[in-house]
Amino acid sequence: MADEHEVLPWVPDILGENWRQPDAVLIVGSAYAGFIREFSGRGATMSLSDYRTARTWQAFQEQFVAQVVRPDPSYYGPLTVLAGGTLQNVALLDLCRASFVKRGEGSILRRDNSGDRIVIDHPAIYSRYVDGQTEWTWQRILRSKARRIVALGTIAEHGLLRLFSARGLAIAEHGRAVSIKSHATHVWPRRYAVVGRTLGYWLDRQSWWTITGTADGELREWRLLPAFHPARSQSDHGYRRTAELLRQSLNS
Fold first, then answer.
1. How many beta carbons lie within 10 A of that of residue 105, not counting itself?
2. Which residues is 112 bridged to in the sheet?
3. pLDDT at residue 182 above 80?
4. Torsion angle (degrees, nearest 10) of CA 190, 196, 201, 206
């Protein structure tokens, strides 16, 4: 929302030309960060005027890519490593299809805060947003033949596993079935999907989640790899280990 009366319509997903292909990668975060210049203190932002005057999603995305994506290599740059050096093979989206922020105070609104800490501080509000938008997220996943999904952080991981579990798909690690039991609670964003499965766990174990079952009348399988957020990509030295795990998961 730009204010209490105006809800901005466009969703800033990034869909590469080849995002529907089997070797593509779906990259899913927890929520969109604030990116409107008049409200956000980030370095790469889009003006409210350009947002308002975009009459189609294509016009919006052209401006979004020019003003937010290209000037922000610290976020989007590391993500290209996961897809083999190009965003053409990527669909980049978030569970919460809105900028989930805590509004700044005062006359100069350049102090909005976003990120997983805001989600953790307000899990019930976040959960309502996510649960009200699961069908959109589900259709985005189904419309691609991509088998690999990267979850940026434990909140995105938990949310995706909840989505798959609620639709009756089987979730396993190394062939061992795992039950996700947090469908009804609104505090799930504060918890690991499975106790002990930290982000570093997956790199150390050279492992990932395997999700299988019938979806939309078709037998499907996905490999879901939890990963550090790009802001913490130094924990994986620029996603080199994560990218290698993704390659392994596609070929296994």
1. 8
2. none
3. no
4. -120
Would residue 159 count as lying in a domain?
yes
Q: Is residue 46 part of a domain?
A: yes
CB count, 10 Å around CB of 237? 9
H-type alpha helices, the chain? 48-53, 57-64, 73-82, 116-121, 123-131, 134-142, 154-166, 199-205, 240-251
Using one digit for the tens of pLDDT, what is the confidence trace for 143-157?
999 999 999 999 999
Q: Which domain holds residue 45?
A: 14-251
**Which has the minimum average pLDDT: 32-36, 57-61, 133-137, 163-167?**
32-36
- Contact between residue 149 and residue 224 where contact means Cβ atoms under 8 Å apart: yes
Query: Is a pLDDT exceeding 90 seen at residue 238?
Result: no
Q: At what angle do helices 134-142 and 154-166 cross, to 10 degrees?
A: 80
Query: Which of 112, 93, 94 has its CA nearest to residue 1?
Result: 112
Residues 82-103: what's their mean pLDDT? 86
Is a pLDDT exceeding 80 seen at residue 239?
Answer: yes
Domain count, the chain: 1
> Bridge partners of 221?
212
Whole-angstrom distance, CA of residue 187 vs CA of residue 204: 28
Q: Give SS3 for 41.
A: coil
What CA–CA distance (Å, rounded) separates 194 from 234? 24
pLDDT tens sequence across 93-126: 999 988 888 877 655 555 677 788 889 999 999 9
Write down the pTM of the prediction.
0.91
Give the residues across from 101 on adjacent strands. Answer: 114
